[in-house]
Structure formats: C-alpha cells, structure tokens
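Q: Give me the 3D complex with iron/sulfur cluster.
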Amino acid sequence: MPASDKPVWLDIGPITQIEPGMAATLPVEGGEEIAVFHTMGGNFYALINKCPHKQGPLSQGIVHGDSVSCPLHNWRISLKNGKALGDDEGCTPTIPLKIDAGRIYLLREAILPGKSSPFSASLAA
Amino acid sequence: MNAQSKIASPPRKKLVVIGNGMAGCRAVEEILEREAERFDIVIFGAEPRVNYNRIMLSPVLAGEKTFDEIVINPAQWYDEHDITLVSGDPVRTIDRERNAVIAASGRTEQYDKLLIATGSDPFIIPVDGHDLTGVVTFRDLDDVDRMLTAAEKGGDAVVIGGGLLGLEAAHGLTLRGMNVTVIHLMPTLMERQLDEAAGYLLRQELENRGQTILTSANTKAILGVDGRVVAVELEDGSRIKADIVVMAVGIRPATALAKSAGLDCERGILVNDHMVTSDPDILAVGECVQHRGLCYGLVAPLWEMCRSLADHVTDQPSGYQGSVTSTKLKVSGIDLFSAGDFSGGEDCEDIVMRDAARGVYKRVVLKDDRIIGAVLYGDTADGNWYFDLLRNEQNVSDIREALIFGQAFASGGALADPNFAVAALSDDAEICGCNGVSKGKVVQCISGGAHSVDAVRSQCKASASCGSCTGLVESLLAISLGDEVESGPKTMCSCTSFTHDDVRRLIIEKELKLIPEVMQELHWTTPDGCSSCRPALNYYLLCAWPAEYKDDEKSRFVNERLHANIQKDGTYSVVPRMWGGLTNPRELRAIADVVEKYDAPMVKVTGGQRLDIFGIKKEDLPAVWGDLNAAGMVSGHAYGKALRTVKTCVGTEWCRFGTQDSTGFGVKLEQATWGSYMPHKFKMAVSGCPRNCAEATIKDFGVVCVDSGYELHIGGNGGIKVRATDLLCKVETEDEAMQICLGFVQLYREDAHYLERTAPWLERKGLDWIKAQLFDDPERIGRLAARFRTSQKYWQVDPWERRADGHQRKLHSHLATIRPELEDA
Ligand code: SRM
Ligand SMILES: Cc1cc2nc3c(=O)[nH]c(=O)nc-3n(C[C@H](O)[C@H](O)[C@H](O)COP(=O)(O)OP(=O)(O)OC[C@H]3O[C@@H](n4cnc5c(N)ncnc54)[C@H](O)[C@@H]3O)c2cc1C
Ligand code: SF4
Ligand code: FES
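A: Here is the predicted complex, encoded as structure tokens.
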C-alpha cells in the first residue's frame, strides 16, 4: 500500500491521562472541539463536543456504560455512534480513535476535513 | 502465495529456529507431526535450558510446582528428533544476504527457512532507580530464582503493575512469606480483563489475604542505598519500603533482531496469515509477531498460529484467522474468567447476576443475540461454555432467559424458561437463604394476598435482606398470579429492584461504603449504574459515612463536579457566598475585579440575595476562585444539591418593626450549615417580623421572628409548585432555634430520597411523622444535630480553595490543542 494512502493517526498522549468515567477536551483551531471519553468499562471514544439537542458540552456529562448523559438537558448519547438514545433524535459526529501501546490516537482526516496540510497536536501547558 | 515451495523428493532443508520458548518449540512439534523428515532443525535459545511451560512459572513461584514439573520437552526429545539445541547462546545477527544467523558465541548456521520466535521483553518503566539491584521483572526462570532468593530473607516486596502477571507475582511472594504491596496505575485491577465490579471483588479478596493494593498510584522513583533497592516513591510523595521490586507493567514484542535485519515491523514483526514475514524465507510466530494489526500476550493464539505455520511449510496452507482470547487468573482460591469485549454499549445488552452471599458476579454481554463478552468472578464453571458460544457466534435467543444461570440450566430445553425451572422446585426448596424462607412459604404468602415483591418481602421476609432471590420471588409471583402481579413501589432506577428507602437502609445495615460495593451487594443489573443512580448513591454514601467516604467526582452532575453552574453556551456562572445577603466593599471590589479581569459579560443580583458572575470559561474557574478566596469569599454552592442561601431581612438592627436580630441569626445559620450536601437544594430565610420580607414561608427552613421568640417553619417551596411552609414549632431562644434547624436538616438528609425537596418529602411522610421524629424522644434531636456537626467537620470545606490550589486541574484544562501546521513552518 502506498504510503500516502495510509490513514494518519494523531498521537494525543497516554491513556492514563483520562480516568475511567471521565472525559477530556481538545479544541481544534478552525474546527470543532473534540471530547475524548474513557468509560468505566475501559473503552475510549472521541466525539465532537456538542450535543445534537442544543450543543451542550458532552464532555461534562455523566458517563455510564458506553453512553453519556448531556449536562444540559440530560439527553443520552451513545458514545459508539454519537446517536441520541431513547425517544430523542439526533446524532453527534464521532472521530475514529485507536489505542496503541497505551497511547490514544485520533484519525487526522476526521478532525480537520479537506486536504489540509499536515498538522500537529501541541500539548496545552 | 507458495511459489517458493518446489518439492521433488527433496534433500533435507535446514530450518533454524530463534527462540526455544513456547511458540518456537510448538511450531517445531507441529511440523514434525506433519512431516518428520522434511527439515534438519537447529534451535537457538537465549535461556540456558530446555523448553518449558512459561505460564507455569507462577505456580513455581508460589511453591505449587517445581521446574522439572513444568518442562515441556526434555533433552531427550531434542535427541529423538535429531534437533540441535544451542541453548544459552542468543542469536545476534540475521544475515539475509547469506541466509545465515550468527550467535553471540560466533556460531553461525545457514538456513533454508528461518523461524523467529523471540517472544516478548518485559517493559521497564524508566523511572529513577529502575536499574538498582533488587528490581526484577517476571518473564523467565532466572527472574523466579531472583524472587525466591529475595523471599528467603522475608521482608517487603513491591509489585508494580496490577495486571495478570503482577497479581500472580504478588500472590507467589505472599505465599513465600513476604509483605506485599501492589502498585497499580489505573483505578481498577486488571482493567483490561475486568470491569469495575469484578475488579472490586478481586481487590477485596486480595486485601483479605493481607496484600496492600494501591490503585491510581503512579510510581515516581525507586530509591536505593548502595545500589540496592530500599523503597518505592509514589507521585504523591509517599514511600513504600521494599526489599525487592517486581516490575510487571507490560510486555513489548521482541523485534530488535528482526528490525536490524530489515524485516517489516510495527509493534511486532509483520506476518501474513501463513506467518511469513516480509522475507519469504523467514517465518515468525508467537508474541513477537503482529498479525492483522494485533499482537497477542497469551498462549492460545500461539497454538493456532503454529498450526497454520506448519500447514504452510508442509505445503497444505490453511491460514491463520486471528484469535479471540480469554483470561483466567492463576491465583489459587480466586476464580476469575474474562473473554471478549465486555465493555458493553448501546447496541449491546448486559445480563448481570450478582450473588453477594457467595461472592459471585457474572456478566454476559450480548449483541444481536450473540455473546460478545463475559466476565465471571467467584463462579467460573461456565466460562468455557460461554467462550465457546462466543467464538462460534452462536445465536442464543432461545436460551436467553436462562443463559446467566449457566449451561446446566440453559441447555435443558424446556428448562430454558426460568419460571418453569422455579415451578419444578420442591415446596421445601429454599428460596431466601438470608431469612430461611422455603418455596412453600412464599407461595403460601402469595396466595394469602401478597401480590407484589414488596408485599412478599414485608410478609414473609423473602428477598428482604440481600435481595439476591428477588428474581426467584418474581418467578413465583408470575407462576402463581400470571398477569395479576402488582408492581411495587418505584425502584430507584432500572438498574435495581430496590427502592430508595431500601438502598438507604441497606447501606447502613450492611455497612456498604463504596459505590461498586453497593452495586454488588444489592445486585445491580447494570455493570456501572446510570446517571440517576450514581449521583444518588454517591450522596447516600457520603451522608451515611461522612468521615470515611471519598467523594466520587465521576458520579456527580457537571455543576457539582466543576463547582459552578453550567450555562447554555457551555460557560459557567460563579456565585460566591454573601453571608445572609450581607456584603462589604472588599467583596464588592473583588467581584468587580474578577468581572473585569476575566471579561465576564454579566453580573446579576440573584433572587437569593447575592451576586452572580456569568460567562466564565472552565479553564478560568480556578483562577477566578483564587481571586475571590483572596478576598475571603467561598463557594456559594449555587450549583449544588446542598445548602444554598439564607435570605435575611434587616431586622431589629435597622427596621422599625424588627423583633429579633434576623440578619445576625441568618448569618449564624448559614455559617453552621454551608457546605453540607443534601438530597436536593436547601434554602433558608430569616424574617424579622411577620411581614416576612425574607419570604421565609416558602423556604425549606424558614424562621419568622416574633416578640416572644422564633417561629420555625418547614417544607416551603417557591419553585415549580409553590408550597407555603408548615409551622413546626415556636421556640424562645436562638440556641433552641439553631438546634432544631440542625436536627431537621439532618433528618431530611438521612431520610429523603435523592432529588426530593423538603416540600414533597414532607407531604410524603406527613408533618406528624416529622414532628414525632424530632420531638417524641427528647434526646433524639440532640443526636441528629450532633451527627450533622460531625458531618460538617469533614464536608464543610470550600471546594474552590482546593481547586484554586491546583487540585483536579485536569477538569479545567484541555488535553491539547490541535492546530494546522503553518505552511512554511
Ligand atoms: C441565579 C438565580 C436566578 C436569579 O438570577 O436570581 C437562579 C438560577 C437558576 N435556578 Fe433558581 N435561581 C435563583 C433563585 C431561585 C429562587 C428564589 C430563591 O431562592 O429565593 C427559586 C424559588 C425558590 C425555591 O427554590 O423554592 C428558584 C427556583 C428554581 C427551581 C425550582 C425548584 C423547585 O423546587 O421547584 C429550579 C429547578 C431545580 O432546582 O430543579 C431552579 C434552577 C435554577 C438554575 C440552577 C437552572 C439550572 O439548573 O441551571 C438556574 C441557574 C442559573 C445560573 O447558572 O446561575 N431554580 N431559583 C437565583 C440564584 C439564587 C442564588 O443566589 O443561589
Ligand atoms: C509468569 C507468566 C505467566 C503467564 N501466564 C499465562 C497464562 O496463564 N495464560 C496464558 O495464556 N499466557 C500466560 N503467559 C504468557 C505466555 O507465557 C506467553 O504468551 C508465551 O510464553 C509466549 O510464547 P513465545 O514463544 O512467543 O515467547 P517465549 O515463551 O517467551 O519464548 C521466547 C524465547 O525466545 C528466547 N529468545 C529471545 N531472543 C532470542 C535470541 N535473540 N536468540 C535466542 N533466543 C531468544 C527467549 O529467551 C525465550 O526463551 C504467562 C507469562 C508469564 C511470564
Ligand atoms: S427561572 Fe428558569 S430561566 Fe430563569 S434562571 Fe430560573 S431556571 Fe433559568
Ligand atoms: S443540549 Fe444536550 S440535552 Fe440539551
């Protein structure tokens, strides 16, 4: 497979920086803020940090199972596919994420769409 | 694919194997089984011994087996098959140009086929002191010998890593008489194999055996004296004495040799489905390889890899498809099994069974009617059965109902209906173990008119204690009554069959002190609860055990986690306390400064007699709080299920109608009660006369001063449904009023359901009940007030101050900022 077709994964640091049951945020310059979740069951997910209802910051919700309850009006959003659960309807975009050797990687293309130049993640002080 | 294999009564080709471990030797066995005469075989092994069963090193360490008992292939096997074993001489170079390998001793062997089976290297965290004498890993027999030598002298052992290997090392060292501490970075032991509930049970058992388990603990350094380890220092500064330190934090595929030979490697050596590397003459197998993106750390996948490898080199290619793995912990007396993906999720369904009396937790995860994961603790008899169903992706919808009870139950055809199974029980079969209630008695009780689980509980006590037989009682109700079963009072949420009252009572009775412990003992049907029960349990526990309980931040609603009110745009509002509605120039100046410094778009006087600063970003909160703290202001808990405000009026000090010092008393009430968490928010007010300018009669606790003393009112609410207070009593002094206030607050804290304000609580319980609780026994109110004061000793702390000091900084900062790189950068 030619190198240029390979998906590029952005290293955003070790898995230990997010405790189970918690989430962390990554602002994107020129893009939407991302929320990375670590569930109590040990799964990691990345979603745009916006509830499909009224843009509540999902990163601040209570995480249970593989879902998060939005902090603003308690919609329940699936972390697997971003869909609102139960009677509510709507969907938050998800960002492909992988874990390798204890580090978290996000799919670069999914963060800043379009054929943008390579970009890096710089850790906030 | 197999272009290179040309067979025409071949002369024996030469197979060289690097690695005399589990995969290398098994691959040779598999090849010999298929075609004994095909190769001349040379095996290089870095270890100076024959091939043994590495996984049995744990029992060797524990003293349950000897080395001889774990040898797989003795010297004789190599002889019988004409295999040259070069042991104690690691290969240093692979020369692909010349098809040769060169060992440390200089010994060189040509190959036609080369097999790399170098396994893994234990990972060593590069903290200061990692190279001291006495710091060991757990990978081969030499490591075990080092541990045994240390254990002979007794003393303290520290195991870094609470995964499978670490816990087996800890177990062995404990049995060898050492005093063992396990340090684990994550909050749950074996978090990759176990969910929180099972991890909790495991931890309890290990602690009962005398091990000290430190979770969420990060090793900072290993300390030594004269080059020998003496202690381990943690990130938080604490030190643990250590005569030996075992690092068991993970493994890395051993790829160095392959990499330097120019073979394609990522985490492991890349192989195709036939275990062929990027060089068609070189194969690789075992923990050192990466197949379809995965590296394995267990033996089961190696066996499958070895089979495909042997099929391929003997020209009957089959192809390895990857493996699903399962884990068991080899610690005697602990039954633990996990397999597949048990993290659950939306499109998945969890079936959970908890039997607290037997210490059993079972969880099976289904997706599209197929098992995708299982975690078993305490009873692993059905582990293999679940694992089979999982690997075969068998549809289990037929046996769904009885699946969790295990194979014996579920495969019984008609028996698959649990009601049927219960119906088949004899009349004297015991249903409720805790209270010794037989099936006959329960049925009798049902036919006597108990038509709900709750009625059965109160009449014959079945399922009234630990609740593990609730399912059986439900079945008996269904069998006896069909559709006429009445649903009982509302349960706390759909995770449990217990009501709020049950849960609160059982937390005290059974001395449950942690959320996972409540979930286990009370048979939660979900692995980690939901957003309704987690905050409720967190509150019930902190109320029940104020001195010991450690707040669980992840079970808090955002406002209580960030100690500010979230706004519709995701910013926060900040409300500092203004005692009794009083303020002064210093406070006002500090607020004005904060507004300017952090660009707050709005400040507003609230309905609760204080100021609210709007539009603060979560990153700025700690700094804002630091500035307010500096002016002596603390959190107003405007965000909390906690004491909010105490509104006052100007009272005797200024007002021509005032009868008492309503302002001063309001301040005293607020100072006594601030910081206390409650089932819901709690508001108070003190008015100086019956004109009631502080609106005391729509507060949870309101005081109306009169000439002869203080009228105390309770259960008012000005919100969605306005309710005026009921008069509780009248007292003559401030001290009495204070005592009754604290007693009432504590009664509410200890009795109400989470998210039930005093108004609905009072209507549910009745004013008479509350009066009886507070006044029938003259000692009672003093005891309630004393319990409240005890709780305040621990919980009346300004949450802002700790955050301003940097505690939980993570909650206020971003992980990183992602930005496009500049074109010319
Ligand atoms: C700021 C304030 C309005 C104002 O600008 O004056 C306010 C603002 C909010 N109120 Fe209130 N209430 C405020 C005084 C009141 C009052 C008046 C009072 O306390 O004297 C009431 C009626 C009295 C009462 O509670 O009985 C009041 C009854 C409510 C209710 C209905 C409660 C009920 O039992 O029915 C809610 C909803 C809830 O708590 O579930 C609520 C909820 C809210 C929330 C927290 C909504 C939310 O969940 O985000 C608002 C937060 C805004 C923010 O970010 O600060 N607020 N709220 C007042 C803050 C008082 C303070 O200093 O802490
Ligand atoms: C204490 C312990 C307990 C375990 N328990 C379990 C368990 O319960 N269940 C389970 O499934 N798995 C368990 N495992 C894991 C299991 O042992 C491994 O998955 C398995 O041994 C891997 O086999 P391998 O052949 O790839 O590597 P290894 O068995 O490690 O063999 C590799 C061999 O290659 C040698 N070698 C490396 N480099 C060279 C070189 N350059 N030249 C010559 N020789 C070299 C090494 O010395 C080693 O002997 C356990 C492991 C340990 C250490
Ligand atoms: S009355 Fe409604 S809109 Fe106004 S602050 Fe209270 S909750 Fe918000
Ligand atoms: S914004 Fe998420 S529920 Fe309303």
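A quick observation: The mean pLDDT of chain A is 84.
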